[in-house]
Amino acid sequence: MAGVHAGVGPSLQEDIKSTVKMELDIQCEEMSPSRWAELLSTMKSCKSIRLDDCNLSSSNCEDLSSIINTNPSLTELKLNNNELGDAGIEYLCKGLLTPSCSLQKLWLQNCNLTSASCETLRSVLSAQLSLTELHVGDNKLGTAGVKVLCQGMMNPNCKLQKLQLEYCELTADIVEALNATLQSKPTLKELSLSNNTLGDTAVKQLCRGLVEASCNLELLHLENCGITSDSCREISAVLSNKSSLIDLSVGDNKIGDSGLALLCQGLMHPNCKIQKLWLWDCDLTSASCKDLSRLISTKETLTEISLIDNNLRDLGMEMLCQALKDPRSKLQELWIRECGLTTACCKALSSAVSVNKHLKVLHMGENKLGDAGVELMCEGLLHPNCNIQSLWLGNCDLTAACCATLATVMATKQCLTELDLSYNSLEDEGIRKICEALRNPSCNMQQLILYDIFWSSEVDDELRALEESKPEMKIIS
Amino acid sequence: MASWALCMAMVLAALAGAVGESRYEKFLRQHVDHPQTSALAAHRYCETMLARRQVTAPGRPCKPSNTFVHAPSEELVAACTQMPDAMGFHSTPTPMSLTACRLRGRDTRPPCAYRARQVQHHVRVACLDGLPVHLAGTYAPPQ
Questions:
Q1: Is the peptide bond before B111 cis (omega within 30 degrees of 0)?
Q2: Can you tell me the distance from the alpha carbon of B74 to that of A138, in angstroms, rounded to the nearest whole number?
Q3: Which residues of B are catalytically annotated?
Q4: What range does the record give for the signal peptide (chain B) (predicted)?
Q5: What is the pLDDT of residues A151-208, one digit of tens each?
Q6: Which residue among A405, B20, B61, B107 has the highest number of C-beta atoms inside a 10 angstrom radius?
Q7: If interface means Cβ-Cβ distance under 8 Å, which residues of chain B face chain A?
């Protein structure tokens, strides 16, 4: 990606070398006045600008406004994590309202905006035909503020497709305005209201509105919205009515097993074409696994499911493993981090991965699998049917003892390109075995993740040397 | 501003390449925030700090958990003079103010969303040449 900088920006010389940058991407860099001036001249021709956490303020917005004014090719502007304030937005919007502006994506998360900014944003929404994405999460806009935004969205000029309102201090009262907006906005594809205390009554009302609305919503995120099983019948109705809905997250809501059972009614409906389903930290237990198994084995559209931080336990996992062996299952990503699993379910898992050809990503960290569990799993991983690319085993109570077998998998399975072994006491002995595997020419590892593991200076040098000799591979720690 | 200057120094050190940053400097970058940086909102502390400290970055997976110690680095260096335990790790003699960041159930791809927990715990470190290079864990003071 041209012009990607993480942290300290490039020197002026590098800027001159690549004068026509299409993308400017900077995060966590405090701007000196001279640096800002440099960047401004670069920005004049950029298609996309990202300045995240760069200590920008309202005065920078004046400059940005003229950039927007004079750069008709600018389509993406991301200014997350800068204290722009309401004053900053006023300046910015002056530029956004010029007829030549064809901005499509605007990100203003955590910019210290209040409801006062919403008036200005409303005018942009009412006027800017090109704007398709607005991300204003982490700003204290409140229900009153977002109601004003909704008014802007009601304008026929507004062709917004994606709206992100996480952590906006919204309350139940917002749903009426949202529903009215949804009725009038067939273009809306993605809506995120995560981390607002909406509660069941409001969420049920929202769901009824979604079912009635003509928009073909594709993504709905309602994480940590105070949802319980009480809302699940209505959410289910959205699932069975809106074939367009492919991405649903109700993570961090205590829906429980009873809620999941209700959700499954909608999920299993033939109209439901769900692809990504996030049910993390939903208070689910092994009792949910019968329904989840049916879903995994029969819903051929389902490609990604997150069950992180639910006490599924070995019994529940064994049921899911059966489902994974069903030839109808097209699941590609399974996230079962912190699910209370132990060595006991690893035989079933091993069997599942030796049969399932579709599974590409498996997150299993924070489960006490132990060396014995991983040894069992490796048997399945080595099977030619297994196509797992990305395997996450962080904090699984592993030691040096399982590293020889892991090394065999790394050197044998060319499909395995990403492996996480963080927070395991692998020690020098274990790391050395891993290094041996990495040196093997048939090892295709691209990212080896080793956060928070202690090793000696000698092993540190060995890892460094290895990274240098294998430039296509990164060791992340 | 002072904390930004420190941050910049760290980041500069970090980006001088693997050669430039010592393991101790990396330990400070990943684990020490003193005085505690004030974020705009409490729930944003972890996300902001981990991005500023180069722990999370575009293209890097989200680190599942990370602890920031809000105490002067000297106190952590002093821990290295304490008697090591059976695993060879050293504990701080007194509990310290910490923020424990835990990845929320979402993605391991950025943006990374975290839960923060403030605790007063003893800190266990691994030391090399008298300097802490690894945070082995934390524990509550025995009652």
A1: yes
A2: 36
A3: 31, 134
A4: 1-20
A5: 999 999 999 999 999 999 999 999 999 999 998 888 999 999 999 999 999 999 999 9
A6: B61
A7: 4, 7-8, 11-12, 14-15, 18, 23, 40-41, 43-44, 48, 51-52, 54, 57-58, 60-61, 63-65, 104-106, 108, 126, 128, 133-136
Sorted by where each starts, the structural domains of chain B and their CATH numbers stand as 22-139 (3.10.130.10)
pLDDT tens across B20-65, in order? Answer: 899 999 999 999 999 999 865 778 899 999 999 999 888 888 998 9
Please say if the pLDDT value at position B68 is more than 80: yes
Candidate from A138, A395, A422 with C-beta closest to B41: A138
Check CB contact under 8 Å for A7 and B58: no
- Give chain A as a 3 state SS string: CCCEEECCCCCHHHHHHCCCCCEEEEECCCCCHHHHHHHHHHHCCCCEEEEECCCCCHHHHHHHHHHHHHCCCCCEEECCCCCCHHHHHHHHHHHHCCCCCCCCEEECCCCCCECHHHHHHHHHHHHCCCCCEEECCCCECHHHHHHHHHHHHHCCCCCCCEEECCCCCCCCCHHHHHHHHHHHCCCCCEEECCCCCCHHHHHHHHHHHHHHCCCCCCEEECCCCCCCHHHHHHHHHHHHHCCCCCEEECCCCCCHHHHHHHHHHHHHCCCCCCCEEECCCCCCEHHHHHHHHHHHHHCCCCCEEECCCCECHHHHHHHHHHHHCCCCCCCCEEECCCCCCEHHHHHHHHHHHHHCCCCCEEECCCCECHHHHHHHHHHHHCCCCCCCCEEECCCCCCEHHHHHHHHHHHHHCCCCCEEECCCCECHHHHHHHHHHHHHCCCCCCCEEECCCCCCCHHHHHHHHHHHHHCCCCEEEC
Q: How far is CA A260 from CA A31, A205, A330, A337, in A?
A: 49, 19, 21, 19
Q: How far is B142 from chain A (nearest CA, A)?
A: 24
Selected for mutation to probe chain B from A451, A460, A464 (highest B CB count within 10 Å) is: A451
Rounded average pLDDT over A76-94? 96
User: C-alpha B36: how far from its chain's center?
Assistant: 11
Give the pTM: 0.91
Residues B64, A451: C-beta atoms closer than 8 Å = yes
Maximum CA pair distance of chain A? 66
Q: From chain A, pick out residues whose CB is under 8 angstroms from the CB of B41.
A: 110, 138, 167
pLDDT 10s digits, A116-158 = 999 999 999 999 889 999 999 999 999 999 999 999 999 999 9
Chain B residue numbers with beta carbons less than 8 Å from the beta carbon of A54 are: none
Contact B44 A278 (CB under 8 A): no
Complex ipTM over 0.90: no
Say if strands A474-476 and B114-128 run parallel, antiparallel, or are unpaired. unpaired
How confident is the model over B115-140, as a mean pLDDT?
A: 95
CA A379 to the chain's CA centroid: 31
Contact flag A306-B106 (C-beta cutoff 8 Å): yes
